Request: fold
Amino acid sequence: MGLPNGVHHLAIATGDIKKQIEFFSDVLGMELVALYWMHGVPGTWHGFLRLGDSSYLAFVQNEAIAKVPTQLGVTHAGSAAAPVAPGAMQHVAMNVDSLDALLALRDRIRSRGVNVFGPLDHGMCHSIYFAGPEDLSLEIATSARPIDARAWIDPEVVKLAGISPEELARYRAPATFASQGGKVAQPPIDPTKPHSRGFPKEVYEALLAMPDEEVTARLSESTPPVRVED
Reply:
């Protein structure tokens, strides 16, 4: 209980959300399930394309995003093998359930006039590679079985990464944690920990100082933009 079990959504900035929706719906057959004003972000649209019942590819558009220039190696990698700034998305790999499904999707991509190469056999998965609008680096992958850590954790890379045997054991078997029922208090602000830098300092500190119930009550926007009658 309480552990991540998949990616709910990966949000990607865009200067042309219609172009992205057109590409992913037509080329990859993904269903558009949401397109609305992004909650708490004035002047911003949010779109969701379905990967599964609880997994989505999302796009975010506003005027400021559209004015940010693309620079390969800084804002975008440009390919699944190229560098990009730390913390930026290097590439996104979407899953299919079999090699046959991978080849069928490769046919669909090519039928839309989009170049794609592979599959490459990586041992842990087979993958095909192609590009999306705005220099997105995209991959479709399939694994015949779960990844076996015994075969895929390379001792040489472990050592080069500065990971000790004790740390590796901890990474492979993370500590369990008994739920406190949501009662653990917000810790003091520790500058050595990661923090969201997109907020003004005073807003961020005020937000962290609020009781959780107040944050939920003040910032939630749960009403869909369109009324649906059952």
The mean pLDDT is 94.
